[in-house]
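Hey L., structure's done. Input below.
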Amino acid sequence: MKTKVLTIFALASLVMMSCKKTETATPAEPGSATITGTLYAPLDLGNDTTAAGVFISGYDNEFAPSGTKLTAIIDTYDLQKNPDNSFNYELKKFTAVVGDNGSFTFTGLPTYSEQINVEIRFSDFDASQAQFDPSNNPAQTKIYTLSDKNATIYDGASLIKEYTYTAN
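Output:
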């Protein structure tokens, strides 16, 4: 009888020890970062002269036109603590529009305390470019381009950037 009681007690103990309360982990909420800046373009070559009268292209660039769009792209792979290399993570895209004085702002870019990369892509635009000597060379329509740029963000970051378009 004692053996039966001990056996039942041992089995009950095993059952009790093998039961664990399952707790689900709540994922951390991402923080955010902000990128603000100014875009420039050489729209008027007539003001690209120094006080000594020397012409230097890009010496005094103008603000890029308001309404020009740019996009910040974050690979959500970078937002994972333990990313799965076999999973195809989405790219999150954020759009900013150039305002007065060439200004732009990306707010609420998701990130954690670890640094991650953001790719910034710029829309091309066409505009008239005043020439250095307008009496001999009238304004010309140019296509303005700017290659993609990278920035590093982290939770709470507030970056200030300046970029300049090239006339083609």
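The two ends are 97 Å apart (CA to CA). The mean pLDDT is 86.

-- N.
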